[in-house]
Inverse folding.
């Protein structure tokens, strides 16, 4: 499989159109189209890095078809994260705590709406 074919596979797996991916990485749709059609033999490093971060794929897989498509996610412990959040919140004034809670609720609403779109 070519770089272009792997890019197209990863882009579609993440639910990105060519336009949406181009916008996310700050380029034109033509650049994405050219890479997917293998018209660009060696895509710019800045594009490759940004594409991999945006699509959460490994650079080795995209460029050389080596290793897994997705890059390994960092391990995390839910209790550890909740403890860190708690430590931050207890130092805030009550009105700041309410503000943070409102931000989390707003994020959750937008995330749910985005999930429904894809």
């Amino acid at each position: 499989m070519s770089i272009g074919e792997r890019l197209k596979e990863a882009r579609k797996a993440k639910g990105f159109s060519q336009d949406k991916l181009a916008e996310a990485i700050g380029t034109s749709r033509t650049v994405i189209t050219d890479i997917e059609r293998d018209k660009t033999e060696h895509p710019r490093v800045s594009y490759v890095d940004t594409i991999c971060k945006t699509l959460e794929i490994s650079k080795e897989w995209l460029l050389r078809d080596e290793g897994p498509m997705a890059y390994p996610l960092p391990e995390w412990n839910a209790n550890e994260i909740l403890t860190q959040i708690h430590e931050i919140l207890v130092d805030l004034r009550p009105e700041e705590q309410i503000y943070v809670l409102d931000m989390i609720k707003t994020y959750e609403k937008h995330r749910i709406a985005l999930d429904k779109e894809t």
